[in-house]
Amino acid sequence: MNKSVAKPHSKARLTSLIPVICLGMCVLAAAPFVSAQRVLLDKIVVVVDSDVVLQSELESRMTEIRANAARANQSIPEEDELREEVLDVLIIENLQMQFAERVSIRFDDDSLNRVLNSMATNSNMSFDEYITALEDNGVYLQTREQIRQQMTMQELQRGMVNRRITITEQEIENFLNSETGREVMSADYLLDHLLIPTSSDETAEVKASKLKYAADLLAQIEEGTALGVVRFSAQQSNSDFPVEAIEFGWRKAEQLPDLFSDIVVDMSIGDIEGPIEAGNGFHVIQLADKRGGTDQMVEQTNIRHILLTPNEIRTDEQSLDAILELRQRIIDGENFASLARQNSDDASSVVGGGDLDWVSQGYMPLEMELVVDELDINELSEPFRSESGWHIAEVMDRRVSDLSLEYSRSQAENALRNRKFDLELQNWLIEIREEAFVEFVD
């Protein structure tokens, strides 16, 4: 029995060489059977608690690493060292999959298909084309299994590691008051931009004409034409004045030119500023988007609903008929809350008479949000379908709430948790490795 400790630094060195999905996986072929002769197809190389690591797994992973290293023009350890490090990785993965099985972490085929569909999109292929490509390469089943394993281990790690991490109120306060914290918490801005260049040797009359031209372009944008469209049209026109632009991308205010940094913090999405005169010309900017920051004014809706979920004794059609009947009873004067307590299948709101309390924009199921957004206060919806079943909903009130403080503290806690996660993950992996029964088989 061998209980040597896993080597986090060794695994880190191999991380870049071990892909989540490798389309060039090694396919092991068994030699033809010879009469009365046994052929060794596979063998156990390590016993890991109640499971094993097979020779084929080891060889397949080493083949992947060699192929990836060759493509990336990277060096790899000597054969014996590589074998030892890969075995360490496989043992840790095996332990995690056993742990996930014990705590019932599983992903169904629909979840895997969503990941495959995303991979297909990233490869500019349809889902069917991508699956066909995997099948043609003989790696479809291996790919699905690798996706399932990676998703399972990530879910396990999130659950096991996050509960080991403690973030105190003092840590949050210190982070928010630190220079790093202020930088992390500050908003990112996406600017659209156009520039009518000027030069120092131009006459005042020419500069005045360019200023008027910039003002004319600004007027078109203010009338509703997108800045990008105005800029493109100006660039394609026969105007005497060229129009240029800078692609800033997402930037924090202090990363923008000084000319814009003080202006952008007071802009709302869609706001336009200009013409702004600078040494190189007249600028017009529009705030295309904004993310993050501590200013969080959120639209909230107070909703109550009744949910009927189809089951073994009530079909989808019968559920719809029942929700229609409940809606009519409410219209006829029966109490919404009483009917919700007696009939709703939503365990989280049934005791409160279907009341979901104040829900922030974007925090309810999309099907419900689309319906609720169209309702007036005290208006009862028509029945609508979600993944959970059939609903009727009523908007009781609406408000805009300042959640800046809550948001800031939540973001700070997430940032601190992310900082601690990798170290705590390594500690947890070392612990489960040390506590495991591991026996190497010659």
From TrEMBL:
Its EC number is 5.2.1.8. GO terms for molecular function: peptide binding; peptidyl-prolyl cis-trans isomerase activity; unfolded protein binding. GO terms for biological process: Gram-negative-bacterium-type cell outer membrane assembly; protein folding; protein stabilization. Residues 186-289, 298-397 form the PpiC domain. The keyword Signal applies. It catalyses: [protein]-peptidylproline (omega=180) = [protein]-peptidylproline (omega=0). It is found in: Periplasm. Keywords: Chaperone, Isomerase, Periplasm, Repeat, Rotamase, Signal. InterPro entries: OMP_Chaperone_SurA, PPIase_dom_sf, PPIase_PpiC, PPIase_SurA, SurA_N, Trigger_fact/SurA_dom_sf. Its main location: periplasm. One of its GO terms (cellular component) is outer membrane-bounded periplasmic space. Chaperone involved in the correct folding and assembly of outer membrane proteins. Recognizes specific patterns of aromatic residues and the orientation of their side chains, which are found more frequently in integral outer membrane proteins. May act in both early periplasmic and late outer membrane-associated steps of protein maturation. The PPIase activity resides only in the second parvulin domain. The N-terminal region and the C-terminal tail are necessary and sufficient for the chaperone activity of SurA. The PPIase activity is dispensable for SurA to function as a chaperone. The N-terminal region and the C-terminal tail are also required for porin recognition. This is Chaperone SurA. It comes from SAR86 cluster bacterium.
